Amino acid sequence: MPTPSFSDYLREHIRTVPDWPAPGVQFRDITPLLQDPKVFRILIDAFVHRYMDHDRRPDVVAGLDARGFILGAVVAYELGVGFVPIRKKGKLPFTTVEETYELEYGSATVELHTDSVHAGSRVLLMDDLIATGGTMMAGKKLLEKLGAQVVEGASIVDLPELGGSTRLRAAGLDLYTLVDFAGH
């Protein structure tokens, strides 16, 4: 039997929950990846090794609320760089900038402390998955409002059928994802 690819190995540890949070949705749950210490280490190492490269190395990692916090904080720690959270509106206690984006039914707003990055900072933007791309695009815009350069957007999962990765790339954001759930 052939050895499964790295992507297949990770996919085996992602739980699909049908009809959650709404009928017809195939929710990709990453918690099994995080629960298994070996798989979690392999996952984090994949990101860390990529961003140790001088051309990709960030000055700071920004994580999107909430699962991007888990990945981003650990990757930042391993790279020896700072971590900044991009939170849902009303969760940060200091002066913030905000960005509102459209959801399928309504809108949402995310915020970032004004002193979390500096003009010229190289930022890696992380989340667990890319669906429609709205949250990651809002994070990119927030960081750029403060003068930072988003070197790449990274996530475990890409759901290309929802169009987010295409939209993000069209907006000039390089992406790095580990598992593609196209047609699954």
Explain briefly what this protein structure is:
The protein has a domain at 55-179: Rossmann fold (3-Layer(aba) Sandwich).
Specify the biggest β-sheet.
7 strands, mixed
The CATH architecture term of the domain at 55-179 is 3-Layer(aba) Sandwich
Q: How many runs of DSSP E, i.e. beta strands?
A: 9
- The geometry reads as globular
The percent range for helix content is 25-40%
Structural class: alpha/beta
Strand numbers in spatial order across the main sheet = 5-6-4-3-7-8-9
Secondary-structure element pattern, one letter each: HEEHHEHEEEEHEHE
Rg, rounded, reads 16 Å
Number of separate helices:
6
Unreliable residue stretches: none
CATH class type of the domain at 55-179: Alpha Beta
